[in-house]
Amino acid sequence: MSFIDEMKKKANTSKKTIVLPEATDVRVIEAASIIGKEGFANIILLGNEEEIRTLANKNGFDISYASMINPIHSEKYNEYVDAFYELRKLKGIDYNKAKEILKDPVYFGMMMVKQGDADGLVSGAIHSTADTLRPALQILKTAPNTKLVSAFFLMVVPDCKYGEDGTFVFSDCGLNPDPNAEELSEIAISSAKSFEQLTGKKSKVAMLSFSTYGSAKSESTEKVIQATNLVKEKMPELLIDGELQLDAAIIPEVAKSKAPESNVAGKANTLIFPNLDAGNIGYKLTQRLAKAEAYGPLCQGIAKPVNDLSRGCSASDIVGVVAITCVQAQMM
Fold first, then answer.
1. Is 151 within 8 Å of 169 (Cβ atoms)?
2. Nearest partner of 44 among 35, 13, 98, 9, judged by Cα
3. Checking phi first, is residue 301 left (phi over 0); if not, alpha (psi -120 to 50) or beta?
4. What are the residues facing 37 on neighbouring strands?
């Protein structure tokens, strides 16, 4: 059974309601059709109902399983406006501005999650990461005991003996451009928890660099070393090592040569990149050259499950992210 099939199976044990605020995109419509037939989640599509149905019919997609809500015609619209105004009035938002903002399907969807009318939200097919995460942070806030919101990709590499049978978490690949040592340590801790939450397997964290155990020295390598030490102080039980080059992190034969005493080298399944450049390039290379499934950017550190999509996503990618979001909602 594939990783995403496992996610769907878990999702089906306690069905959650997920909001898709980009219902004018044909990929989202197709994903809703697939999810409806497979039955592992309840889907709410936001937008003009007539336009959504027309788009579905034109492309031959059955969305009879999904609910559709036009934010400005919703019976909850005024309730959500009131609640949003109370959340943001000290930030200079007046009531009329709150009414205007809540016409945006992403903001309306976040309020659905905030008010408990949905369990999670998936967006990003036509919105930037910032346009998805800004309303999430304004409305849902960060999770308790979380210092930093970050983004990871769940990577599933076919016919791969490395990681957890080809399954990895890559982080941060979508949000924090150049985290300092403290921020990098928080990304590592959150990513380890995300890996274990989604796979049920023990996380083995590699703090990646272009250096292994001091083979090169720079401000960047020192940051990675400092971050590794911070994680060991905060979570001494966590399996983590660094700084490690990628080959030393995941290939046992290289690990024996470069880091023979490491308890992580050659076995890492959670890869922490030193900055967003490296993380974003790394996941896209793996996705395109290894034909890996790349699910994300998935968010960690927000109080409720909200996940971003790559704007190059397919309908099947959206289906996979919805399944993961359901499992995260179950865990919360």
1. no
2. 35
3. left
4. none
For 197, the domain range is 150-289
Residue corresponding to tokens 């304004």: 138
Q: What does the DSSP assignment read for 260-308? A: TT-SSTTT--EEE-SSHHHHHHHHHHHHHHS--EEEEEEEESBSS-EEE
pLDDT tens by residue, 5-58 = 999 999 999 999 999 999 999 999 999 999 999 999 999 999 999 999 999 999
Other Cβ atoms less than 10 A from the Cβ of 97: the count is 14
Name the pTM for this structure.
0.87
**Residues 179 and 225 both lie in one domain:** yes
Residues 290, 160 contacting (CB under 8 angstroms): yes
CATH of the domain at 67: 3.40.50.10950
User: 10 Å Cβ neighbour count for 50?
Assistant: 10
CA nearest to 191, candidates 273, 134, 304: 273
Q: Is 277 in the same domain as 173?
A: yes
Both 8 and 126 in a single domain? yes
